[in-house]
Automatic annotation (TrEMBL):
Residues 111-241 form the C1q domain. The keyword Secreted applies. The lineage of its organism: Eukaryota, Metazoa, Chordata, Craniata, Vertebrata. Residues 1-22 form the signal peptide. Keywords: Extracellular matrix, Secreted, Signal. InterPro entries: C1q_dom, Collagen, Collagen/C1q_domain, Tumour_necrosis_fac-like_dom. SMART domains: C1Q. Its main location: secreted. It holds the Pfam family C1q. It is found in: Secreted, Extracellular space, Extracellular matrix. This is C1q domain-containing protein.
Amino acid sequence: MIHHRFLLVSVLLSCSTRLLVAMETCPATGMPGMPGFPGMPGKDGRSGEKGEKGEPGAPWNNVLGPQKGEKGEPGRTGYPGKRGQGGERGERGPPGTPGLPGEPGDHGIVGIHQKAAFSVARGTNEYPDRSSIIRFTTVITNINDDFNPFTGRFRCRVPGTYYFVFHASLEDRLCVLMKVDNKLLTPFCDHRRNRRQVTSGSLAVSLSRDQEVWLETKDYRGMRGKPAGYSIFSGFLLHSQ
């Protein structure tokens, strides 16, 4: 029984082999089929492992990598650009450091900075000399001795604006010149001749330190003084500079 089955299998295998050989050796007689549709793109594969570090490149001029060139010459100066718009005003900075002390000033004299005044009288009946400074015999007020009764001159020690005035009691004609440092400020003349009269004149003058003011006679010099009427010359500081 087993032997018969073996023979049957052998026959079947032999027939199958012949059939396959016959199919390969026989020419195809049918039409080729239509090509199939393209398949869907496949997904990207996973990233591969990181490769090993490569070898250094070949040397270039005996140096690995490019060489640095020499520094070039500076280019020409460009044209100045237009002035930009001004920025906003910045905040006030902190105070600077104190400066060095200044040089010492001139020595002052205590008590004369805001005070200057004098008043003197001519108490003699003699005429003053012609074309000369009128001198006064009696000192009424002389703060800080600014007026010199021996020379008849007032010397300014406090710069500022002064007011000068003279008052003369006379019986003769009179011309008085008020001068500053030998420069004529103004003349005061009275050509009337009476038994007894009074004349006066005044002027505001701006003076600098050490300038001098005085009264001087001209042609008529009737500035005399009697006990009944002195001739007086006064001056005082209105305000300092």
